[in-house]
Each structure stands twice: as structure tokens, then as C-alpha cells.
Amino acid sequence: MLLRVIVLALSVQGEEPFCKLWGNPDIPLLSKTGDFILGGIFTLHNNIKESKPTLKSAPEALFAETMIFAIEQINNRTDILPNVSLGYKIYDTCDTVPLAIKAAMALMSGAGEAQPSTLPCSQQSSIHAIIGHSASSPTIGIATLVGQFNIPVISHFATCACLSNRKEFPTFFRTIPSDYYQSRALAQLVKHFGWTWVGTIRSDNDYGNSGMATFIKAAEQEGICIEYSEVIYRTNSREKFLKTVEVIKMASSKTIVAFAIFIDMEFLIKELLLQNITGLQWVGSESWVSAKNVATKENYRIYKGAIGFSIANAEIPGLKEFLLSVRPSSTSGNTGLIKLWEDMFDCSFNTSHSKTCTGSENLHLINNLYTDASELRITYNVYKAVYTVAHALHDLLACQDSQGPCMANQKDTLPALQYLKIVNFSVNNGDYVNFDINGDPPARYDLVNWQLNVNGIIEFIPKSVCSESCRPGTRKATKKGKPVCCFDCLPCAEGEIIYCTKCPLEYRANKEKDQCILKDIEFLSYDEIMGRILIIFALLGALLSSTVTAVFFKFRDTPIVKANNSELSFLLLFSLTLCFLCSLTFIGEPTQWSCMLRQTAFGITFVLCISCVLGKTIVVLMAFRATMPGSNVMKCFGPTQQRLSVLSFTLLQTLTCIIWLVKHPPFPSKNISSNKEVIILECEMGSTVAFYIVLGYIGLLSVMCFVLAFLARKLPDNFNEAKFITFSMLVFCSVWITFIPSYISSPGKYTVAVEVFAILASSFGLLLCIFIPKCYIILLKPDKNSKKHLMALLVQQAKLKFRSIMNCMLR
To answer: Which UniProt keywords apply (predicted)?
Structure first.
């Protein structure tokens, strides 16, 4: 094919030279505008004559989409290039050097952009960096060309050691190690197995020639002899491939070291399969030994047991979902995506085709190298290359905005190229990216071995271990009497991740046990159902107490209110209202003030309440004694004494609470030991002794009240209040006796809920048992709430007392 080259013609108009494009500009297959534009040069077709990508042999459509994915991911981040967008222009080279150079020239000249017919020759290129190429020979051409204009080239797969020459390629970088290291490692691998008599095969390009030259030099130093050295290339005639096959058949060496690209190896293996040449030990370079399109069940007949080095596999979170979500309709004008879609679904967006594409076909049903995200060895290098440029641009802009360090005090004058030389960052999986003085990354490889699994699928990683590596969330435990290589994997304890590293106290291990996540916060909240139910009952109790107070106040002059010590009744109703309301302080996130208030308010209000009940009980006993002949007991426990008794009991509890708050006040704390999954926000008592003194004092008054009420239950009383008090105190004591074991055994927020329930239940017990019977008479039986009815009861009680006295005298 005659390659039409873009010619730059200089014409002088005045003092400023102008440049003009001759020929039709090439349009990128995939493109998007942005503040910074990255170029991409990949092989989407195997040769110039093809019109569609051949995904079985060229998975570089995945490389192109990964570049787009990384750019979109960066555009959505705020920590890298904030308020700056990245764009892209991606070209196809059809795996030829001339088209690769033509694509580079198109990127530099801005071909395909809306621009005047002539422009100043001094105008800078709109491309800030170029990602690619996959092969070394095209990359050499690209780097040689664009290096003259200080445009960086970052390759993901060009491994030729020759590209490390900084004098010839000053702007070249790569995210894959140089073949200098791989070639020497292959020689050591062959030496390790004692294969000192080998044949070699290489691709007839810069990758194969340079890599094999380094291998042969290293092999000679290791004492390895080379029987033959064959050259292959995909454009060679079949006769040349048959000649290579014949050399292999006739050779006495049984080990072959192949430093070739996978496409060339595909042509060779076709002939090897036809002649059924098996039983050889193949040692391969990373280009083909870990290529999934080469590792087929059919090819396994030839390459069985092949070993070699490959780039470490990696995961790119979110990539598979992105690949499956791509739609040609969502990227109008990107012809490369349309052609990719037509090839995958064997359809056409041209209506004249027998099967028309709709753009909504399901990519989940496709299983090929594009949709397979399990082997991302080289793809991951594309991802890192994009992020490398992004970090360099980020540092450059930080310098210009005076928000970051500037190199050599040359602010606003240095291109991103200088920042690529010092880039140093880590990607998602913790892999660090940086370059040496030659633009090479640190060398790291996986040793792979072709093995067929039970499903007939070739696996690359060799299985020669006593025990499988422990997964995250487990730890090694050596087997007794076995070597250190043999171990069991035991589950890590709760709160431990990876290989049983403990999480910080406020963190817990996630389900996969590979990350520490913050524990959930737990407390009795206003928003949860249980909290709302308790609030409703608390407010209902306070409302009911207020209603009873209103009823008693309205009928304050009636006998039933007067006969039961109205002053103590009103004080008791007030204290019950406070008891209901104090339960609200236990709900919500604990704070310093709420912790101090909840226990002290509870202690004081309940003592006030029980003191009133105790006073009413004593009044009943004293009233009976007062009816005995010659008794002046009521003078000893009149209204003044009743007020003083309630005040004294309450002041004693108040004094205890004040000392508690001054010396060791309650405070909010985070309980991380009771439950390993959550952080429980609770109130520490400050002083456990003070807390139990407060509770014990309430219990003491309650027992006294219950005993006195029980003794007075059969005493004649106008309205049987002693019986009601006895029953109410029975309910009260039962609730708090049940509370103790429930409080101790309840976990987390349920401990607080149990205490709130006890407060509400005991308060309701007092309110309902003492006052509801009286309200029933006041509101529904007013005839019994009269002076006449009261006098009749007094006469009846007098008769009963007279009979009792007479019986005693007769005895």
C-alpha cells in the first residue's frame, strides 16, 4: 500500500511562518474533548485490509477501552486534577510501523480538529502525552518522532531494551519492565533446569531481535549452548514457516526458547499442529506464554508444560462493569466503537445488512477477550500509564497554582515531561509506580507454567506447593512434624483482617476480612421504633398524671379528695409526672449533660414519689390510732410533720446526688468490648457505689412503704386507700426486682430500654392503683362522693369498733 504522508509545507507570510496540511486528515476512531488531551495508539486491526477488529487475535480493543475507563475515572475524582477534564484521541495502526508514525503525526498536528487551513508552525501540540504502542518497533518510530517535540510516550507493552537509551528516546517511558531483565531471567531459568542444549526462535522485529540477543549473551555466560536460532514473522511466506518447522523436527535439542510476539507464534503453531510435533519443552517470553488467545486446548498439544515469565496479573475494580455498559449510541461519532460492536454481534448499523445492529445488544452474552476481565496483565499497564500522566499533570498544575513544589524554580516553563520523571504514586492495589533514569519501572515477573485443569482450560500458574496460600482472613498454622511449607489455614479471630492483623478498637473486619471498616454506632435513638414507643408511653403517662391532677383539683372540696390527704395526693401526682418525663433523658445519644441528668433526676423524683406514698401510708395508720380513746397521735403526725417527712427523705437523696455529681459524675463513653460488631454509646456511672446508694435508698423506702401498707391493709378506712397503696407497692417492687437480672443480661441499647421500661411500668403501677379507683368514684359514682355517704360509713365503722371492744371485754 502506498502510504500517503502528511506533508508540512512552509510558506512565509511576513515574518511569521505558517504550516498547512496536505492530504486528507485522519479521524481518530475514539475521541473526546477535554482540558488536556491524551493520545492513544493501538492495534485494533491485524492488518490494513481488514475492516473489523479480530478479537480472537488482537485484544487491543480492551486496551483502548481501559484507557477510556481510566480517563473517565480520573475525571470523576476530586483528589486528582480537580476541576480539570481529560480528553482522548485514539488511533488504529493496523499493526504497521508507517501507520503508527502517521497516527503520531496526526496527534501532533491536530488533524481532524476544527481549525483554519493554515496555522503558525510554532503552535504547540494539543496532545500532552501518547499512550502506546503495544509493539516495540512501532513504539520506536513513534518515540523517535515525537521526542523531537518533547511529547511524552508511555508504552504499556513495548519491552525492547533498546528503548532504555535516553539519548535516542528522551521522552519515552513504560509501565512494563525492559526485556533486559526478562532475557537474563530466562537464561537463568533454563540453566536451573539443566537444559544446556537448546534451540531458539525469535520474532523478526525489535522486540524479538533485541530480546534474543540479550538472552544468547546471558546463556553463553551460563554455559548454555545454542543449536539453532530461527526467525519468524507473520508476513513471512508459508515456505519460511515450514523451513522453521523442519529445523525443529531435525534438531536434537528438546528445549526451545521462543522470544516472539503472540501473533507470530500463532502462525508457527498452525504448522506445528499440522505436523503433530509434540514432546518439546517450550520456554517463552511474556508476549505469548501468558496470552489467553494462544493458550487454547488445541494448542496445548504442542505447548504442554510450557514455562516462562509473565507480567503479574492484577484487578481493576469497576472495569468489567464499564466494559459491559459501553453502548455505541452513547458515544456518537466514535466510529471505532461502532465497528467493534458490529464485529462482536455480527451485525451492521447499515440497514442494508442482513442483520441490523440496534445498539442495545447484551454484552453479558458475549464471551471473548474483550469481556474477560480475569487476565489483565497488560491491560493493567494501560491503566497505570493513564494514571501516570494524570499525576504528572496534577503536579504541574499544583506548581502553577503555587500549591505544590516546582522543579528547579522554573515555574510555568516546564512541560509535564519533567514531572513524569519524578512521578511516584500507588494505585488501588498498593502497586507503586515510578521510573528510573531510563524511564523504566522496577522489574517484576510471575513464573508461569501451562497446565490443563479438570475443565480442559489451560492455567498459567504452576501448582507445586504443599499447601495453598492462605486467603485473606486466615493465618498459617504449621503442621506438627511437617516442613514449614506445609501448613493449615485457620480462620482469623473476630476483628482481624488479611493475615490476622488486628483492626483498631473502633473498627471491625468486613465480611471478606480484607479491610477494617468503622463499627456501627448503637444507642437508644429517638428514630427507632423501640425509642418511639417508649417516648409515646412516657408522654402518655405524663398526660394521664396531669389529667388526674386536674380532676382532683376540680373536685378538691369533695370528701374523697379531702379524706385522702389532698396535699400529699397533689404532690404525689406532681412527682409521678416528673418520673414519666425523666425517662426521656435516657433516650438519644448520650452526652455529658444527659448522663448527669438521667440518673440523678431518676433518683430524686422517685424518692419524692415514694416519700409521698410513705406519708399517705403513715397517715392511714395514724388516723386509725387517732380513733382509739385518749389518743393524740394525729397531733404528732399532722400536716406539718407530713411535709417535713417528705422534704427530709427527698433532701437526703438530693444531697447524695450532689456529692455524686461533684466527686465522680456520670459521663458518656464508647463500649467496644461488649459487642465486637458495634460501638455502644452509653453512660458510665462514674461511681458505682454512688449509683447503688441511690438505688438502695429508693429500695429501702419502697420496702418500708410496702410493709406499712401491708399492715394497714385491713384497717377500716373510708375509701380503702391502704389496700390500693399495698397493691401499688407490690407492683412497684415486683417491677424493680425483675429489673435487676434483666438489666444485667440485656446487651447494648437494650440495657437502657430495660431501665426506661422499669421507670414507666412502676410509675404507671402507682398512678393506676392509687388514683384510678378514686377517679372512678369521682366521675362515675358521684353519689358515693358525698357527705351523707361518708357519715353512713363513719356510723358503720363506729359500730364495728364498738362490737370489737365489747368482744374483747367479754373475753
So the answer is: Cell membrane, G-protein coupled receptor, Glycoprotein, Membrane, Receptor, Signal, Transducer, Transmembrane, Transmembrane helix
Q: Which residues pair with 258 in a beta bridge?
A: 201, 284
User: How large is the angle between the packed helices 136-146 and 206-221, nearest 10 degrees?
Assistant: 110
Determine the Cα–Cα distance for residues 516 and 505; give it in Å rounded to an integer: 10
Q: Residue 277 — pLDDT band, cuts 50, 70, 90? A: very high
SS (HEC) of 28-93: CCEEECCCEEEEEEECCCCCCCCCCCCCCCCCHHHHHHHHHHHHHHHHCCCCCCCCCCEEEEEEEC
699, 736 contact by CB (below 8 A) = yes
Q: What is the CA radius of gyration of the chain?
A: 45
Partner residues linked to 4 by β-bridges? none
Contact assessment for residue 283 and residue 191, using Cβ atoms and an 8 Å cutoff = no
Mean pLDDT (the chain, rounded):
81
Strand 446-449 vs strand 307-310: parallel, antiparallel, or unpaired?
antiparallel
Among 324, 366, 322, which Cα is nearest to 343's?
A: 366
Residue 593: all three cell numbers together: 449533660
d(CA 167, CA 155): 18
193: helix, coil or strand? Answer: coil
Q: Is the separation of the CB atoms in 163 and 139 below 8 Å?
A: yes
DSSP 282-342: EEE-HHHHT-TTT--TTTHHHHTT-EEEEPPP---TTHHHHHHH--GGGSTT-HHHHHHHH
C-alpha–C-alpha distance, residues 269 and 267, integer Å:
6
Q: Annotate 194-204 with b (16+ C-beta within 10 A) or e (fewer).
A: ebeebbbbbbb
* Residue 22 bridge partners (DSSP): 7
Mind spelling out the 3-state secondary structure of 335-382? HHHHHHHHHHHCCECCCCCCCECCCCCCHHHCCCCCCCCCCCHHHHHH
Q: Are 27 and 335 in contact (CB under 8 A)?
A: yes
Mean per-residue pLDDT, 322-351: 75
Q: Which residue has the cell 508540512?
A: 8
pTM score, whole prediction: 0.56
Burial class (CB in 10 A: 0-12, 13-18, 19+), 743: middle
Q: Is 662 helix (H, G, I), strand (E, B) or coil?
A: helix
Structure confidence by residue, pLDDT tens digits, 215-250: 999 999 998 888 899 999 988 999 999 999 999 999
Q: Which three cell numbers stand for residue 333?
A: 461519532
Q: Is 625 helix (H, G, I), strand (E, B) or coil?
A: helix
* CA 440/CA 181 separation, integer angstroms: 11
Q: How far apart are CA 613 and CA 733, in angstroms?
A: 13
* CA neighbor of 178 nearest in space, from 447, 434, 446, 438: 438
